[in-house]
Recover the amino acids of this structure.
């Protein structure tokens, strides 16, 4: 399991070689999390965009203790390793009842680390919680561990993931499924932790989010359905980079749409024939993420929603749910369900291959800039210039930088 997990991490690192050869610091990784690591306790419970970012701030608190010149590569390696560790939850023997024998569980993990449409999601802290939420989807569906130390660790992990972003709110369907199917104090406690995190997520969003209570035509049911067909299922069919090329700039639109709809229809059949299992709860989690994303979409973003790298992070849970449902059907289903799962795998392969290589998030942050930033931090008490140190980061559009007062 350890070797396979390291293999998953190596695959993720290899998907974007620039993350090692020309590493960068991406968006909130620097401006919020690393800058916040200089504050007491790393601002672990500070609200941003109406949400807590507990997981990222805890990791940044550790990374912030190292010299800034090492931050870019440490962020990339640490984020890929964190995502691989999260996906390795499927390798656990406790997941056998969900995903079948060890070979099928290895396949599930490999498909998850090779998900298409993750240009902005892989290799940075800002989106690491999506991978953590996928792991929590599986953990909540697994039976209880035997050892008390594992139970404590599991509840702690679910609490952190549930309090990061909208994790708790999105995981409610899986927690509800577990409550309905099991009578166990520990499993109910585990679900209760998620529901409690969901209540906190909702309260914070209503209190602090600038988008709370707004309505937008992008959130209408037809728009959400269109988004699911093209951005979620369509990403498996043509890959994220193929979306704009084939659906916006012209191409076999009717054929590709039909393939995407067929894939979704197969998923629907696999779910409807597994109503006692976790498939419907996994799918509900993925769709809930899509609905929330569309309901809060910026008006200017909707016309270019199919452009690569626009809101791809909001489709990760939906695509991960599809992978879990298909592997479950392949490993544990009846013969008709297995044939359907095979057909789904064939439809998923093209987009996965197209997106196997990920373009850089960079260009990288110049090492000279990081060294100057490091010198500024070291000389802060005697610094004669502005009362802060800063370094510019990616994305280049806008004034993204790390500022330490």
């Amino acid at each position: 399991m350890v070797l396979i997990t390291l293999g998953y991490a190596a695959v993720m690192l290899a998907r974007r070689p620039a993350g090692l050869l020309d590493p960068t610091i991406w968006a909130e990784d620097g401006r919020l999390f690393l800058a916040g690591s200089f504050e007491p306790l790393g601002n672990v419970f500070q609200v941003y965009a109406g949400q807590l970012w507990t997981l990222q701030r805890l990791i940044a608190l550790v990374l912030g203790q190292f010299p800034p010149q090492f931050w870019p590569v440490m962020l990339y390696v640490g984020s890929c390793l964190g995502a691989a560790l999260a996906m390795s939850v499927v390798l656990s023997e406790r997941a056998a009842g969900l995903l079948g024998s060890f070979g099928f569980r290895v396949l599930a993990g490999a498909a998850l680390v090779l998900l298409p449409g993750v240009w902005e999601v892989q290799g940075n802290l800002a989106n690491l919680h999506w991978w953590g939420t996928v792991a929590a989807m599986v953990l909540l569906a697994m039976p209880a561990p035997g050892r008390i130390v594992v139970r404590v660790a599991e509840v702690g992990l679910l609490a952190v993931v549930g309090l990061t972003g909208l994790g708790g709110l999105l995981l409610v369907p899986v927690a509800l499924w577990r409550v309905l199917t099991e009578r166990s104090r520990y499993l109910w406690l585990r679900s209760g932790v998620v529901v409690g995190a969901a209540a906190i997520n909702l309260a914070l969003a209503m209190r602090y989010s600038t988008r709370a209570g707004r309505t937008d035509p992008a959130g209408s049911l037809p728009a959400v359905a269109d988004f699911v067909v093209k951005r979620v299922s369509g990403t498996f069919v043509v890959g994220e980079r193929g979306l704009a090329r084939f659906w916006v700039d012209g191409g076999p639109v009717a054929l590709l749409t039909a393939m995407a709809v067929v894939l979704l229809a197969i998923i629907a059949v696999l779910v409807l024939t597994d109503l006692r299992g976790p498939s419907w709860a996994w799918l509900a989690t993925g769709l809930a993420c899509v609905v929330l994303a569309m309901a809060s979409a910026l008006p200017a973003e909707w016309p270019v929603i199919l452009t690569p790298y626009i809101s791809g992070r909001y489709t990760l849970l939906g695509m991960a749910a599809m992978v879990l449902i298909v592997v479950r059907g392949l490993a544990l289903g009846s013969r008709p369900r297995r044939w359907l799962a095979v057909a789904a795998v064939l439809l998923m392969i093209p987009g996965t291959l197209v997106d196997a290589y990920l373009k850089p998030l960079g260009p990288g942050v110049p090492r000279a800039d990081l060294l100057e930033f490091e010198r500024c931090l070291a000389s802060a008490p005697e610094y004669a210039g502005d009362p802060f140190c800063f370094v510019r980061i990616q994305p280049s559009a806008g004034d993204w930088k790390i500022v330490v007062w």
About this structure: Strands lie at 389-392, 401-404. The longest strand covers residues 389-392.
